[in-house]
C-alpha cells in the first residue's frame, strides 16, 4: 500500500492513478495524517450494481427516476428572473471552473 501527500498527489496524479489502475491501494495524507484512500474499482456483475442501488434506495439516499418527464413539463411556467441573477451566478460558476 502506497502513500502520497496531497501536494505529491497533485503533481503526480497520472502516475498515482496508473498505480491504482494496476490494483494498488493509495493512502492520501495531509500533514502526515491519512485523510483518504484511493482504491481500484472492482468490476462487478450488473446484478451486484442493482443490489447496491436497492440498498441506497432503502436507506433513503437516492430516489430512482421513472425515465419519463411529466406530461406538462414543457408547458410549465418558468422562473422569472428579470435582473438576470440566475444567469450571472451560472456564468460566474463556469468561469471559476466549478
Topology:
Layout: E1 2-5, H1 6-11, H2 13-21, E2 26-30, E3 33-38, H3 46-58, H4 85-96
Parallel strand pairs: 1-2
Antiparallel strand pairs: 2-3
Structure explained in plain terms:
By secondary structure, the chain is α+β, with helices and mostly antiparallel strands. The protein has a domain at 1-64: YefM-like domain (YefM-like fold), CATH 3.40.1620. The chain has helices spanning 6-11, 13-21, 46-58, 85-96, and strands at 2-5, 26-30, 33-38. The chain has a three-stranded mixed sheet with strand order 1-2-3.
Into which percentage range does the β-strand content fall?
A: 15-25%
| Widest β-sheet, arrangement of strands | 1-2-3
CATH fold title of the domain at 1-64: YefM-like fold
Radius of gyration: 22 Å
Bulk shape: flat
How many helical stretches?
4
| Oligomerization | single chain
Q: What's the CATH C level of the domain at 1-64?
A: Alpha Beta
Distance, first to last CA: 32 Å
Q: How helical, in percent, are the residues?
A: 40-55%
CATH architecture of the domain at 1-64: 3-Layer(aba) Sandwich
Order of helices and strands: EHHEEHH
**What structural class do the secondary elements suggest?**
alpha+beta
In the predicted model, the low-confidence regions spanning at least 5 consecutive residues are none
Q: CATH superfamily assignment of the domain at 1-64?
A: YefM-like domain
Largest beta-sheet characterization: 3 strands, mixed
Tally of DSSP β-strands? 3
Mean pLDDT: 88
Amino acid at each position: 500500500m502506497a502513500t502520497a501527500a496531497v501536494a505529491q498527489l497533485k503533481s503526480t496524479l497520472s502516475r498515482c492513478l496508473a498505480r491504482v489502475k494496476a490494483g494498488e491501494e493509495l493512502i492520501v495524507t495531509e500533514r502526515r495524517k491519512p485523510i483518504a484512500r484511493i482504491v481500484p474499482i472492482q468490476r462487478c456483475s450488473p446484478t451486484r450494481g442493482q443490489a447496491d442501488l436497492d440498498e441506497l434506495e432503502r436507506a433513503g439516499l437516492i430516489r430512482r427516476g421513472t425515465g419519463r418527464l411529466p406530461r406538462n413539463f414543457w408547458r410549465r411556467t418558468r422562473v422569472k428572473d428579470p435582473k438576470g441573477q440566475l444567469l450571472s451566478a451560472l456564468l460566474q460558476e463556469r468561469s471559476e471552473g466549478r
